[in-house]
Amino acid sequence: MLRLKTTFDAGIYLEKKKSFVDYLQFCKSPVREAGDVMRKALITGVTGQDGSYLAELLLEKGYEVWGLMRRSSSFHTGRIDHIYKDPHEHPRLRLVYGDLTDGSNLSSVINEIQPDEVYNLGAQSHVRVSFDIPIFTVNTDGLGTLRLLEAIRSSNRPVRFYQASSSEMYGKVVETPQTEKTPFHPRSPYGCAKVYAFWQTVNYREAYNLFACNGIMFNHESPRRGETFVTRKITRAAARIKLGLQDKLYLGNLDARRDWGFAGDYVEAMRLMLQQDEPDDYVIATGESHSVREFVEEVFGYLDLKWADYVEIDPRYFRPSEVDLLQGDASKAKRVLGWEAKVGFRELARMITDADMKIARREKIIEEQGA
Ligand code: NAP
Ligand code: F7E
After folding, report:
1. Is the distance from the beta carbon of residue 319 to the nearest atom of ligand 2 less than 6 Å?
2. Distance from the CA of 158 to the center of ligand 1, in angstroms?
3. Pocket of ligand 1 (CB under 6 A)
4. DSSP SS3 for 283
5. Residues 262, 343: contact at Cβ < 8 Å?
6. 302 Rama class: left (phi>0) / alpha (psi -120 to 50) / beta
7. Alpha-helix runs per DSSP H in the chain
8. Ligand 2, atom 24: nearest CA belongs to which residue?
9. How far apart are CA 256 and CA 42, in angstroms?
10. What is the Å distance from ligand 2's center to 297 Cα?
11. Which stretches of the chain score pLDDT less than 50?
């Protein structure tokens, strides 16, 4: 059995005057098994939806997890509070301040933490908002990825790197379903930034032999999804309408079709990519596509509501350029990683709706007490 290559192993290897490129080769064939030395992972975007599920998963797998977190004037750790412990108790989840727009900070963090695996999930991830703040979006999502890759490369450490790439890169799709070979045609500042980051990741793999992978993730949702993404916006509103807390739901394009999966399933694919012998890029999707209208019908129907009585169209939510249809083919991920989506469309819609009914019930009690 090959042993896990830790940063400690790397030190020994380099002391033997082998080059860093040799060491990266050596690292390409690890068998990472239970009982090996505890791995250390750094997650950017740990306070986000995926960051929280991935942190849970890695802790469960025995990792020491470091999360890069932006400074904020208000608390924004709600998604990870349940796994966070006081640093004095020597917990396995630690947080460190940082920002993808600050390259010197990223270098210090990489050098100090010396992670074995880095998951770059940090991003301005809202497509509509990327039209309002394109420069910030590209700085964080595009250049931020390059800053992180540079910090890793210059650390001369055998870090394995995961990049959160997106189906938004396909944009105006030229074929359906989309695979790893489908050309990109991004339709937003966000999509353009993700294409840039995708190719930087590929180039660091080819130029520097870095173990770097892209997960081309199709939309994935959960009860922890931000409330301005369409799924959560619909489930929150439907639950509040059901309890008489709200009258209307204003939406944009109901015809757009998405391949929606469950975020908890998708973070498993991220980890699996970094445990392979060779780095590569993978589509992660359910293979099913549904319109926004179908999602509305499913959620309102589940709550015994006639959606047409409550939903109105507000042109404000249309995008300057739209991605009409996304449907992924994840057969490579199934074949190589043994990964496939477990949660389907209906189960996902109901899972999020159930969670939002609980929140709405609490809101109802607060409203009644205040009255
Ligand atoms: P999310 O909930 O919006 O989380 C984004 C995270 O990035 C948050 O922790 C946010 O921190 C952090 N962040 C934003 N700007 C940053 C900066 N300048 N420096 C450092 N951190 C920053 O997104 P998500 O749904 O978990 O998605 C995770 C990643 O996957 C993102 O890169 C997204 O673009 C990509 N992706 C998502 C999907 C999907 O359907 N969910 C699909 C494909 C790809 P704050 O808490 O401080 O805002
Ligand atoms: O929109 C339509 C909207 O904002 C889905 C991000 O995680 O997935 C996500 O990007 C669709 C679009 O997600 C409203 O026009 C209609 O066609 O939930 P969304 P997204 O744009 O697909 C990809 C893969 C990512 O990588 C991103 O980070 O729904 N839509 N009415 C609406 N969308 C919103 N947000 N709000 C509406 O009122």
Report:
1. yes
2. 25
3. 44-45, 47-51, 70, 72, 76, 99-101, 121-125, 140, 144, 164, 166, 217, 219-220, 226
4. strand
5. yes
6. alpha
7. 7-15, 20-27, 49-60, 103-113, 127-132, 134-137, 144-155, 189-208, 230-242, 263-273, 292-302, 331-332, 345-370
8. 219
9. 35
10. 17
11. 1-34
Number of other residues whose CB lies within 10 A of the CB of residue 342: 12
Angstrom CA distances, 4 to 7, 29, 279, 365, stand at 10, 9, 16, 53
Give the pLDDT of residue 91: 85
Ligand index nearest the alpha carbon of residue 289: 2
Determine the straight-line distance between the first and last CA of the chain, rounded to whole angstroms. 67
Does residue 255 contact residue 291 with C-beta atoms inside 8 Å? yes
| Edge-to-edge strands, sheet with 93-97 | 93-97, 64-69, 40-44, 117-120, 160-166, 211-217, 281-284
Written in H, E and C, the secondary structure of 354-368 is HHHHHHHHHHHHHHH
**Phi and psi for 100 in degrees, rounded to 5?**
-70, -10
Cα angle 138-142-143, degrees, rounded to a multiple of 5: 95
**Element counts in the chain: helices (H) and strands (E):** 13, 13
Token representation of residue 250: 């204003």
- Evaluate whether 293 touches 313 at the Cβ level (below 8 Å): no
HSE toward the beta carbon, residue 320, CA cutoff 13 A: 12
Per-residue HEC secondary structure of 85-105 comes to CCHHHCCCEEEEECCCCCHHH
- How many angstroms separate the alpha carbon of residue 125 from the centre of ligand 1? 5
The residue whose C-alpha atom lies closest to atom 29 belonging to ligand 1 is 121
Residue 227 CA, ligand 2 centroid: distance in Å: 11
Q: Three-state SS for 217?
A: strand
CB 177 within 8 A of CB 160: no
List, by residue number, the catalytic residues: 166, 168, 190
CA-nearest residue for atom 36, ligand 2, is 230
